User: Fold this.
Amino acid sequence: MNVIMNNMMTRQQKYAAIFSICVVLFSACVMLFAGPIVSIEHVDVTSFPEITIQGVIHKPEGIKPAVDREYFTIVEDGTSIKDFTVKALDVDRYIAVCIDSSKSLSKKNFLKLKKIAINIIKKSTGQYNVIVYRFNDEVIPLGTLSKNTDNDTETIESIQQHGKRTKLYNCLFTATEELARHNGEKAIILLTDGKDEGSFMFPDDIVNNAREHAIPIYTIVPERCSKATAVSRLSKITKGKLFVATAGVEDAVVNMLKTQMIHTIPFAITFKTKKHDGAIHPIEVQFNNKTIQDSDTGYAHYSFPKNTYAIHTDLPFVVLAGIVVLLVIALVIVMLVFINKWKQIVELISMQRIPQPVQRYYSRIYEKDEALKKETDTLLLATSSEYSYTQAWLVEKSGPETGKKFPLIWDEVTIGRDKENAIVINDEAVSLKHAKIKKVGNTFYLFDCASDNGTFLNNKKLLRPKPLSDWDEIQIGRTTILFRGTKIKH
Assistant:
């Protein structure tokens, strides 16, 4: 019996391998291999015989590569292409200007920082999409991202000092999240005395978030600032820089933005191919401007011209290949069903040979396994690396113990008002056992435990278990909890 089962499993693996190879051969149109400086992102053959190669030049530190035709060589199937065009593509740039409007700043320093912010925006007319934030007891966005510099300068001019607390880290987190929603080059300009009071975010949260989204923080502080060291660390670790509010600081910041906000230069290369064989062809892009030499290769599947003899001669092969693929799929399905049924038959035969007391013992284990399986089957299993974490913890964003951290050490953690829970929330609107977080593999899932007021994830009521992602907000009763985690590097 075991020999038969092993042979059946071996056949199933062979059929699965054949099916995978067929899918790859018939669905893969473009295969790319990226280099460290030149990177081909896409080879477009939709306008055949015109071929368009889209890629980027990754800018090395301290070098300004130019995207000019003279620096490029295109090689198709080992033959150099003479007639081609190169075009540099535009890159959107986004800046968040964060201004400290708390009364911890002196009036003189506050007005000076406002003036510097206005001058920076005026000197960068039309180059960046800008959004302005002011922060004191709360973080307030003053508009949306736009290139309307006149409106931005008027907005900054109207800012007045209010409040005694300075939620600096909360503002940086909010600005980072807004910029991360957009594709392009990004930066934060922070004007402050470096003091933070009342933020539920921590410096390490800001650093990790900014580095994850490649957003440098450029900080401007008043002269003789006592808290310069703390914000200097933020700027340095995020690849930004600390500036002191002295004469000419505006020009220094503008020049820094011009040179540092160019990490990649996208380009498009277009040429016409003379190949009409419907095969896969390698296309190599070589870049050489003396200081930088690199190349990258893309593989493109050229289409046949319409109404040609080649289409008719290859049509039977395409039909035959499609039939083979369908047969392989059908065989795999039949094998899976047969193997599953056969396992059930073998288990029934085995159970009949076991004494009654032993059967009852294994029946109880089987019932527990089935209950666990039903619970696991309700999960929307997340295979994306976005939901995989090496470690995780919760932070109480708002509630009776704001700022408190709860490490998720065990595979299952319950949350509620009862003292028997792993995490106890002293909130009358929270049920005795309100919710739980369960770790399956490297993914953490949120469950509602039939609570009275329901569990909410990112302001949406939880109707079934869902995987948790970094910075997700869990609302139970009147308490809001942040899910944080360290992602697995792939």
User: Anything to note?
Assistant: The two ends are 41 Å apart (CA to CA). The domain at 34-87+265-301 is CATH 2.60.40 (Immunoglobulin-like). DSSP finds nine helices and 26 strands in the chain.
